[in-house]
Write a structure and sequence with these properties.
Layout: H1 3-7, H2 11-21, E1 26-28, E2 35-37, H3 42-59, H4 66-82, H5 84-87, E3 95-99, E4 106-109, E5 113-117, H6 118-123, H7 127-142, H8 145-157, H9 163-169, H10 171-181, H11 195-212, H12 219-230, H13 238-241, H14 246-270, H15 274-279
Parallel strand pairs: 3-5
Antiparallel strand pairs: 1-2, 4-5
The structure holds zinc ion.
Length: 280
Amino acid sequence: MTPLARLVGPRWLIGALVVALAVVACRTVPETGRRALSLLPESQLRAMGADAFQQIKQQEELSDDPEARRRVEQVGTRIARVTESATGVPAEQWEFATFAGEQKNAFALPGGRVGFFEGILEVAETDDELATVMGHEVAHVAARHGSERMSQALMVSLGGIGLSVALRDKPAQTQQLFLAAYGLGAQVGYMLPNSRQHELEADQIGLLYMARAGYDPRASVDFWEGMAASSEGGQPPTFLSTHPNHGQRIDRLQEYMPRAMEEYRRSRASRGSEDAVARR
Ligand SMILES: [Zn+2]
């Protein structure tokens, strides 16, 4: 039995039956208020996230740069603390891993698992820039974007069969969908819909999260400019390949900037360093 097939054992059937009874399940995306389809039980997604993270940690080499690991852990924990009610995951349950390798990529899984590659830390030189990526990834978790994409894909690509049937009879496909929905599927032969919408939404929500944690939201513009510059003349980084174009991204960030700056000033004031804002 593959590790993938192990995921969808009998303990999922109860959850799957509950889902089968729900004709349409929706939830509200934090901060934006958008209604989003969500057919999969959160508990099941978290279990799949934990399992996938375990596999990735076995496959990928962990970074042996203690400073890189410390930065990811520290920025991640600060953002996890201010987003507990949105993500439903207590800060101490989050796990942050830093992987070796040049790829400019990062990912987050349900249940609070985040992976950064050393390559993206080269672009995110400051902690404020790192917080841009972290805020974006935590926003994906809070907005349950993976769950929405997976729900849509399950309805469409499994030919209209019931979700409970899909989980029971097609565990490999279900797992593939999970990985694709969270941006990790290498073998998926089709694109999951709505990624652009999700990316812009994660940028905007992430901007508020980084600011709330006391990181300067203006650094997000520097970071995305750095990412665009790093992809000039070569392959676009993985992190950008399914992502909105640069100009559109910056425009949308600017829309949320006044609100983010308010949050940032409030956070800095409560941390006793309002003067740091004034100095910049
Ligand atoms: Zn993203």
